[in-house]
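Submission sheet (multi-component)
Chains listed below:
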Amino acid sequence: DTEVTQTPKHLVMGMTNKKSLKCEQHMGHRAMYWYKQKAKKPPELMFVYSYEKLSINESVPSRFSPECPNSSLLNLHLHALQPEDSALYLCASSQAYNPYNEQFFGPGTRLTVL
Amino acid sequence: EDKVVQSPLSLVVHEGDTVTLNCSYEVTNFRSLLWYKQEKKAPTFLFMLTSSGIEKKSGRLSSILDKKELFSILNITATQTGDSAVYLCAVGNTGNQFYFGTGTSLTVIP
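Outcome: structure written.
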C-alpha cells in the first residue's frame, strides 16, 4: 500500500462548527505533515509529526489543532474557522523527518468555510 | 529570508515540444531539491537532487542541479497532453524545513 488517504474529500462548514480532517498511511512512515494550499499558491506547511511527536508548529492559529493518535493516523481538528481558512488541506508522509526523504501526498480535503 | 523562485509562472506549448522549467533558490544550509507534479490535487514526487551535475532521468523527464549557481532545471522532451500540470520545486535544509516555489503551470495543447 503506497498511498496516503484523506477524508472527507470535500467539507463545507460554518464558522461556529467543529469538524475534523483525517489522514491515514500504511507505508510505515514515521513523519506526517499537514499543508494548507490556496488556489494557485504552493503548499504551506502547518504541522509536522515525527514519531508521533509534534516537531513543527509553524505559528498556525489555535483554531487548527493537530493530533497524531498513532504512527498511521493524523487528524486535524477545526474549530471556529474563518472564511479565509477555505483552502485545500493536504496530508503527506515520509519515511523520516529529514530533507532526504520525499513526501507522499494524499488527495487533499477541499474545505469551504461559510 | 529563505526563498524558492520558479520560472516561468506559466507556459503553453504544443505536443511534441521540449520545455525547460527553472527553479532557483536562496535557502540556508541547503540539503536537497525536490520536484513534484501536481495535477488535480495531490503533488506526486518526480525527482530528488542533492549533488551538483548529476542528471536524474525518468523517461522523457530529466533534471539537474547546480549548487554553485543555486538552481535546478526540469526538462520534459516530446511533451504530451498528460504532462499538463503544475510543477513544484521544493528545497530542504538541515533544519528539516521544506520551502516550496510558487510552481510553473504547464499546458500542453494537442
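Remark: The CA atoms of residues 21 and 63 of chain A lie 13 Å apart.
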